[in-house]
Design goal:
The complex is a heterodimer of chains A (about 220) and B (about 120). With about 220 residues, chain A is α/β, with parallel strands linked by helices. In chain A, about 35% of the residues lie in helices and about 20% in strands. Chain A has eight helices and eight strands; from the N terminus they run E-H-E-H-E-H-E-H-E-E-H-H-E-H-E-H. In chain A, strands 4-3-5-2-6-7-8 form a seven-stranded parallel β-sheet, with helices on both faces. In chain A, strand 7, helix 7 and strand 8 form a beta-alpha-beta unit. In chain A, helix 1 runs parallel beside helix 4 and helix 2 crosses helix 8. Chain A is globular. Chain A starts with a strand and ends with a helix. Chain B has about 120 residues and is of the alpha+beta class. Chain B has a domain of about 80 residues: hypothetical protein PF0899 fold (2-Layer Sandwich), CATH 3.30.2320. Chain B contains two helices and six strands; from the N terminus they run αβαβββββ. In chain B, helix 1 packs across helix 2. The longest helix of chain B has 14 residues. Chain B is elongated, with a radius of gyration of 18 Å. Classes of the chains: A alpha/beta (about 220), B alpha+beta (about 120). Chains A and B meet through strand 1, helix 1, helix 6 and helix 7 of A and helix 1 and strand 6 of B. Strand 1 of chain A pairs antiparallel with strand 6 of chain B, so a sheet runs across the interface.
């Protein structure tokens, strides 16, 4: 019987591929965001509103992660932006190698903003760096105001919080001030936006932020 | 359920460290797991047992050493353990914290039996 010392990170392979993705994206001057949320928080609707708003103003590409279907990719295709679909076939999160393959299918020379829509899940995607500049977590008012306390890992790892479905506030049991306070407690440096993809409220400031951040990347 | 993909990563790394010339079987695998790593130990053990069948790791014990969430408080300067759901300094209640540990997922070492057969 003998002991063999290993001392390696379990996800080192993913981390290394993420590092390569990051170098590739930065090398092309692309601002990349990894959008995460629980299922049904409105990631794809936010994406649609965002693409609508940024049309003609910024070259955007999309990597669309989905467990089983290409429904989301077809929704995005209407906006005439380069989009690559990743079907994880049951997998609960995107991994860096999948994004690496997807990047190979895009003409990176002409992209300023890459939006990666992760699989709807607030646990698993938090462990897998994809090579993005930052994570954006979407939480909707219908999920209640305690989400950040239940999934601290994801809120801690994200740089931006988009509180979506604010048009439903009168009908749901969600205290938006408490939602903000809970999120900022877990991560005081979170930038917070409030949106409704139904009424369009708050979409402009969010898109202005994306424009500013994309412009700030050197190319 | 990303525990399956994590179990697979563990198996892949362990196999790289096994001697190639002799038949060995792995008795145990030691893993450091942060409480905020987003991994459910029971689920990881279940997946590990399932995917190691028919490999040199079959029947190996997965020994999980849980690492508490510890942070440095920039308010009062204290280093200490904090509750993941509160994310506040247990001393002064401050929320400006730098995480010291609690997110790791580190494969430490393995114990192998050189005289066992199955490969």
């Amino acid at each position: 019987m003998s002991v063999i010392t290993i001392e390696r990170k379990v996800l080192e392979k993913n981390d290394e591929l993420a590092r390569q993705n990051r170098l590739l994206l930065e090398g092309h001057g692309i601002f990349a965001i990894n959008v995460v949320s629980s299922p049904g928080a409105g990631k794809t609707s936010l994406l649609e509103r965002t693409l609508e708003q940024l049309a003609g103003r910024l070259n955007v590409a999309v990597i669309e992660g989905d467990v089983q279907t290409d429904i989301d990719a077809r929704r995005v295709a209407k906006y005439n932006v380069p989009a690559v679909q990743i079907v994880t076939a049951g997998g609960c999160h995107l991994e860096a190698n999948l994004v690496h393959d997807a990047l190979g299918k895009l003409d990176l020379s002409n992209i300023r903003l890459l939006i990666i829509e992760n699989v709807g899940n607030l646990v698993c995607p938090s462990n897998y760096d994809l090579g993005e500049a930052m994570k954006v977590v979407v939480a909707s008012t219908t999920e209640g105001d305690d989400k950040p306390l239940k999934y601290p890992g994801m809120f801690r790892n994200s740089s931006v919080l988009v509180i979506n479905k604010i048009d439903l506030l009168p009908y749901v049991n969600c205290d938006i001030a408490a939602l903000r306070a809970n999120a900022l407690r877990i991560n005081p440096s979170l930038v917070v936006y409030e949106t409704s993809c139904t009424t369009g409220a708050g979409i402009l400031p969010w898109c202005d932020w994306l424009l500013a951040r994309s412009a700030a990347v050197k190319h | 359920m990303h525990e399956l993909s994590i179990a697979q990563s563990i198996v892949d790394i362990v196999r790289q460290h096994l001697p190639k010339e002799e038949a060995v079987s792995v008795r145990s695998v030691r893993l450091r797991l942060g409480v905020m790593a987003g991994v459910v130990p029971d689920s990881l053990e279940f997946c590990f047992a399932a995917i190691t069948e028919g490999t040199p790791l079959q029947g190996a014990r997965l020994e999980i050493e849980q690492v508490p969430l510890r942070a440095h408080c920039t308010g009062c300067g204290r280093d200490g353990e904090i509750a993941p759901t509160l994310f506040a300094c247990s001393e002064c209640g401050g929320t400006s914290l730098t995480v010291i540990s609690g997110r790791e997922m580190q494969l430490r070492d393995i114990e192998v039996d050189e005289n066992a057969g199955v490969r």
